[in-house]
Please model this.
Amino acid sequence: MPNNNIKHIVVLMMENRSFDHMLGALKREDPRINGLSGDESNPDTAGAEIKVQPRAKFQGQLDPDPDHHFAGVNLQLYHGTNGPPETPSMKGFVLDYFKQRRDVKHSHNIMYYFPPEKLPVLTGLARSYAVFNGWFSSIPGPTLCNRAFSHYGTSFGQVGMDVFYWRGPYLSIYERMANATPKRTAKVYYYDEHSSSLEVANLLKNQPQLFATYRQFLDDCKRGTLPDYSYVEPNYSDHEGPGGEELANDQHPDHHVQAGEIFIASIYNAIRENPDLWKSTVLLITYDEHGGIYDHMPPPACPPDGFIASAADTGTGKPFAFDRLGVRVPALLISPWVPKGVVVPGPEDPVNGRTFEHASIPATVTQYFLGDYDNRSPREKTASTFMDLLSDQMRPDEDCPVFDFE
Model:
């Protein structure tokens, strides 16, 4: 049964990093984590096998931005095979990144990953709470369509970065919450006016009560006025703010990864530092998609979503039925009700493994706050939910870390 002490679900979705790139090194200290052994490799254009290495840098290494549009991801996944429905080879990442600069040495950077000590916040949270071995982006493509799955349980047939238009018939999780009886509260917290929401603002333009800023999130945490459901977005651009330059902290290549670490810590600490809020909140941290960066785990098939993207839209010469997932991304579940050191098995475990994706977010929020709700996409209806990962025993305060960046 779900833990009924929870009054708030908060989701923080970062940008464009793969599981292996950010958390793969943790396998060496905890073999339950489906990360990197160090022997994983991809061929380069000169025919050499390039192994993964713990040489990822905070900034300057993934410029230009790796390709993460549908056709590029298709090469990353299926090089050396006949393509779907075969099992992805995960062998085309270096070859695809070579296209960006046509520099053989530079193309190897796509195989680099972070050692745990360089990401103390993300890896500290992974060690202390729950890490998902099998959380995948919802489609093998870019940001907007993947984020749409986190709001609607579908992208309504979109696989690209065109301006997103609602096609119905499914409402966003925010609209579902607002329409509920009794009414539930929900907000998208975007960073500021210079880095506004990537979400489908044209759908919500007549509902300003559904939007607030990062500063308001911090204030709502302090005052204990957080809504039932919160979706937090990072800063997507370097720009001038009231106190000087605001660095992009979304961790999208080639933005500074440490800025994202500080931002993640600020969200966690804001919840953690209000004792009543902390004991009544669950925080999910994940990433919208892999950003073209290497991961070794083949994405599995999934139930079709009821939409078809055309061959022209995919850029691969073949249509896409939304019947397979995108590349795996980091995902952590955080709460004092999460036992320490949980590793949620993924599809690598044929007995206990579970597969999660971004449709799991509206599926979980709907299940927990609204109960029986039928008008949802086929994908969302079958998506795994995560509230069952909470225990009925709250951890002692001293067992829950706080990150100090003062």
